[in-house]
Amino acid sequence: MAKQSSSWIMAMQKKRWALMVLALFSLSTAMVFFMRTAFDSCSAGAENGFGEGKEREAGANSVGRVQIEEPNPLEFMKSKLVLLVSHELSLSGVGSEVVWITNQKPVESDEVIHSLERKMLDRGVQVFSAKGQKAIDTALKADLVVLNTAVAGKWLDGVLKENVPRVLPKVLWWIHEMRGHYFNGEYVKHLPFVAGAMIDSHATAEYWKNRTHERLGIAMPKTYVVHLGNSKDLMEVAEDSISRRVLREHVRESLGVRSEDLLFAIINSVSRGKGQDLFLRAFHESLQVIQAKKLQVPSMHAVVVGSDMNAQTKFETELRKFVSEQKIKDRVHFVNKTLTVAPYLAAIDVLVQNSQARGECFGRITIEAMGFQLPVLGTAAGGTMEIVVNGTTGFLHPAGKEGVMPLAHNIVKLATHVERRMTMGKQGYERVKERFLEHHMAHRIALVLKEVLRRAKSSGNS
């Protein structure tokens, strides 16, 4: 009886520890810190597609857990007033006085938005309406105005009106999108006249350069490619073996899978463009190959994190119907969309990045997975090709239906070779440590901000 009681207490303590870890890091992987998040930035065209150059040299000294504290190269921003404008709310942090306004905000209460607003307020970020005199006054006073996403361009004419020409010289346009409908004159007609554009990958920067010229007949301003990077919070979890183990056990228990089972996960908002349907087809094909060849592998499972039946009812219905028809319901797990991705990265064995068409602009989840020493199976498109080294940190496959069987074979490769999975995961981790951390961002983004501020000041004086 005493033994049972002791086991029960230990189990409860483990669950409490898991919940504490979950609470502590619940937002860490969703944050996009403007001044503090990790970025690997390089001027477009000045270096090659993988961001080789000075930031690689700086990153080489960062490998390992012990680092020498360096002066913050963004110290000069503390005296600046920065206005960030987004078409929807996402999280921003501070390294200066920051004001955030949201152009499109749901009328109904939203728990995620409320949590993010509280997080920003706690970090000293002011949050107020995108419309009204306060927004105009702040834009006119600000040292820097950051338009965060392409659609935020509508705010300029909609709110600033006749003040637009006064603000444009100090606008840094931060673009994350690759979809064709963003190339609309209503959104980006002022793009050629801003101080600079910041884009997450070389592939996206090239796409915007060609598309704006061909479709709209306008030129891009001075453009900087800014690779995203992992926050310190995320890396602390990834490098803490105890936290990883607790989270892994907790999530696997909630999914009903065993510790020895193999989990292949796709972590994106469920939509056709993210390729969950093709991933599930490839997963099913991989099971067929394993059965036909009588390969000895652990029980395999597919995890789809990002489910939202309200937003994608038709598509999700198709996914679940396919799973049911192929009789793999016991091997496929749907998880609701969440800001808390670290526990799932700790729980899985392989990340699948299956974004379709032009791929991801960058793919933050990819470097987050690599930080957790996970191999990545990604589409050979967009920013993923600037992150994943094919055959070294993972495998790339074509986008579209023609990529289903190559992805299936890559799943089988990793399922049957545990050493390959481990080696690729470790090499992915080293790649993250070399170029996708916060201190990489600090040095490179400082150069971008200094140049944009200098250009804005020069324009103001003239």
UniProtKB/TrEMBL annotation:
Family annotation (InterPro entries): Glyco_trans_1, Glyco_trans_4_5
Look up keyword Protein biosynthesis and say if it applies: no
Q: Which Pfam families does UniProt cross-reference here?
A: Glyco_trans_4_5, Glycos_transf_1
Q: Which keywords describe this protein according to UniProt? A: Glycosyltransferase, Transferase
Task: Return one GO MF term.
Answer: glycosyltransferase activity
Q: Does the keyword Membrane apply?
A: no
| Domain of life from the UniProt record | Eukaryota
> Which segments constitute the Glycosyl transferase family domain?
249-431
Tell me what this protein is called: Glycosyl transferase family 1 domain-containing protein
